Amino acid sequence: MTPETKAVLQRIGAALDEHRALRVHVHGLVALHQESKRAVSAKENWNERQGKGRSAARSRERPARRKGPTCGPRPAGASSRISVDLLRAAYQVQIASLKEAYPESRTFPDEDGMWLIAKSSIISGLMREATFLVALPYRSGAGPRGWAFWTADGQPRWIGPRHTNFYDGSICAFAPHDRVWFDGGDLTTLLDLYTVWTVRHLHLEVFGRWPGKQYALLGADPRVQAYYRKIECNDDELCGCGSETLRYAECCKQSDLQWDPMQLMSLFLSRVPGGFSTRRPPRSVLEFINGQSHLPRIAEVHLQMNSP
Ligand SMILES: [Zn+2]
Fold it and tell me: What's the predicted TM-score (pTM) here?
């Protein structure tokens, strides 16, 4: 990585720590938003621009927020009433616009939905790219399931395990309560969220810390959350309790250390059998990305699709 690229990555990390909006340009190039507005206004600006027509050089703005490993399907609600046909139509109508934003994206039909494969450049000057493999079931409430790999510089490498889901190592870029994406939603936005998640991984790899806000297991027992933070959070990262300002060492770390470590671990393992080691992609996903097999069926690799 050149010093220039590293400097860009560092500035993006600082923007994430400060909750400033980022832009995601065509082909998934993440850049700073010149005006550094608060993230909350970003989506409105983007919609406004879309309404005025698009150009090849358009960019999309992404909120700098993100969250931890409590991704999952949306609870049953309004969206669960959307039929299979509506979801299929909602995704298929977007294929042309998706190709404008992510020109190398391709879709493949599946018995239970659609696979989306896309490449993202992440930041300017990077000698590798990310490939996203995304299962989009047509069953409302199941949610998307995406896996990310570094490609274009040799053997594909899985991107994880930080902020991936237990049991399948899929991308955890947002939680339902973030309200940034819904079943049937904009696929470019979904890939933008995955792209910003990937730039955070790159920052972690290069600088040794996850940039920006992060959550532990939301809604879990406080001791389970404490264990998660102890394992996952570095001292100089924003605290895994979701703090927007405090680093772990100055926020929850002292209270996390007061629990009996063995008790924390056994409680965590009772709630998350297998624990952190379960965060790895299904074998069939790995075989596909390594060119050893065809795409798996969505029902084979999507946990929510495995259960009625
Ligand atoms: Zn905290």
Answer: 0.87
